[in-house]
Amino acid sequence: MRKLVVILCISLFSLIACSEETIEPKDPKDDLNAYVEAWERLDFNAMQSLVLASDDASTLTEQYETAYDALGTTDVAVSITDEPQLDRDPDRDEYVVDTNDYTYTLTITQNTLVGDYSFDTAITLTPVIETIDDTEQVTHYQIIWDKGLIIPPLKDGGEIKQIVTEPIRGNIFDRNGEALAVNGEMREIGVDTGRFVDRATEIEFISKALDMTVDQIEHTLSQSWVQDGLFIPLKRVSVTEEEKLAQLNEIPSVLSTASYGRVYPEGETMSHLVGYVGTVTAEDLENDEDGIYSDGDMIGKRGIEYIFEEQLRGEDGIRLVVDNNGNRTGIVEQDPVDGEDIHLTIDRKVQSTLFNQFVEGDAGHATIIDPKTSETLALVSYPSFDPTLFTEGMSQEVYDGLNNDPLTPLLNRFQSTYSPGSVFKPVTAMIGLHTGSFTPTDTLDIDGYTYNQPSFGNYEVRRVSLSDGPVDLHDALVRSDNIYFARQALNIGAENFLTTSQLFGFNNDAYTFSYPIRQSQVANDETLSNDVLLADTGYGQGQVLVSSHHLAMMYTPLFHNGNMMTPILLKGETSEILTEHVISEADVTALRQALYDVVQNGTATIAKSDTVTLSGKTGTAELKQSASDENKQENGWFVGYDDESRYLITMMIESVESKGGSRYPAEKVRQAFEALVN
Description:
- Belongs to the transpeptidase family.
- Keywords: Membrane, Signal.
- This protein has 678 residues and is α+β, with helices and mostly antiparallel strands.
- It folds into 3 domains: 15-156, Roll (Nuclear Transport Factor 2, Chain: A); 172-343, CATH 3.30.1390.30; 416-677, Beta-lactamase, CATH 3.40.710.10.
- It contains 22 helices and 23 strands.
- Strands 6, 7, 8, 9 and 14 form a 5-stranded mixed beta sheet that branches. It has a 5-stranded antiparallel beta sheet with strand order 16-15-23-22-21, sandwiched between helices. Strands 1-2-3-4 form a 4-stranded antiparallel beta sheet, with helices on one face.
- Helix 5 crosses helix 6 (214-221) and helix 15 packs across helix 18.
- 38% of the residues are buried.
């Protein structure tokens, strides 16, 4: 019996000892690791189950989702970089409840809208103590959570905001670095209603000076925030408009402040080429699939500003901040990328000289290229407009005046195509020479002023002068003989004509230009379907349509040993050969001699100058409603170049029937050369 009691006591003691030995101290890092793993999975619900209950922690999931959505965070990496010393005594025999909190250091790296964001933070775990079998034990640890664990700047509250930093728009320069479109100083014109002396009179004057209506100004002044003593902005004015600014400064109620905006120093001279910027419209935003623009942003609306919008605009910078009742703390930011500058081959002075050849009442366009390099030096459309009207706003009356002007100043003519008339004859000549259909010395016997053949029906080709004998290429160019070129087009043949025209950039995808100009054409459907159309095409009528710029490039074989070149507009580019050996060097010599004689004793003697030696070709395009139309409109053309091949100018002026026909643009081209080379 005594032996049994001893055995029972020993067994009971062993059971108690074994029970105490099974209570192992909890490691807070185990619970921290579970929290970290949930964090890296973006499992906010799991994270919330591991934190100590509190008012903040009760909405942990919603707070993380809101913050990460604002930050653009989709990936998080968390590492434990510093650990506390746990209160553990290896020599202690009995289990002791550890009531200590333990703080670890974490390094968090997460992606955001503008790049990675990293921060170090302290995280504290507190023990959860429960009584099990009458013994208090630490069953696990919970995170003591606050908003600062999302990101430190949120610790004291606030919300995450995105602040967009606009880039500086790139400038547009000419070949010599002269400004064509820049971000320059302006004056913001406004009023202080408390300074009105004669309100009605002053507003009337201001409305006229700023091209605004009285109603527009009154609407601005009627806003709820307007009060005496405040500056109420109305419109920006370029500092170059000194006279206007001086007049406005005389008005008692007018105030002005320094501002910056898009400035176009060359005004209407460059407006069709350079274009302008304007505020984005609802349509712009609807077409903005990449979400680049916001209300109030500026965007290229026309010309180079529009064509090179992607390069000029740059990229917005974004600054992520915590805004706590107006107090902002930065999180991470991406600097804006300023727009690229665009450098054109255009020469500001050359452009101005060409533009100034046009006078009030003219409507037309012109191009100047450097025939040796194929660089575009000037692109002019006339009449034109002040681009500042579109960037800074104009009254409906001013806009209606531009839009309803019969000379259509808003139409970019150099971007369009027109019937070229006889300036196309050298191109027909080169097509014929290339195909071997004739040589410069081959002649045609032509009698009288008209030509007809059975396939024409009642149609006749007419020429303006008679020849003394058989007509060769030289004589046909000097006298501008329509019948010669009509018959040679028939000799070339429709298929040959169309195929060879591709060598000059017609219907040829390899012929490109940085400024989108309507593609020239030989025929409406690229089919010369009958002999009348083919014959008319030979002397630049029919359905032939060209731009002044493409026409200039068609003459480049005369400067490059018979090679047709590609055009360039951007400085730093190099022209390439579009087609090698369109004509032979001997043919080049023959054509250049003929075009020289056109000016010396042919149809373009008005282009003869005492100060510069010119060669060229006149052309008159007749625009008829029908073959019997007596009230036809005539567009006059001239293509000219100087003997040193410094410039090649093409010019077209509409409605020259009462201005001397093609002599009118020929004289203007001569005057342009005299101004440029002297």
